[in-house]
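User: Okay, second chain of the day. Same drill as before: sequence in, structure tokens out.
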Amino acid sequence: MSDLLVPEVLLADIDGPGDDFHLAEAGLRYERMIDRMVQGLPVIRGGRTVTPLGELPLKH
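Assistant: Same drill. Structure tokens below.
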């Protein structure tokens, strides 16, 4: 997984598992993944950045 995902979303040895034990077993920190996606940052290595969620126009 470390070849595919950015290091910020991977569970480090010193990190606790957080609230989602299923993803922690896979070595992932879902909070960091969601934070990056909301900010428009990639979670996949070589991925592109996109417009942060807060900056998208509202649909009426």
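The mean pLDDT is 79.

User: Thanks, on to the next one.
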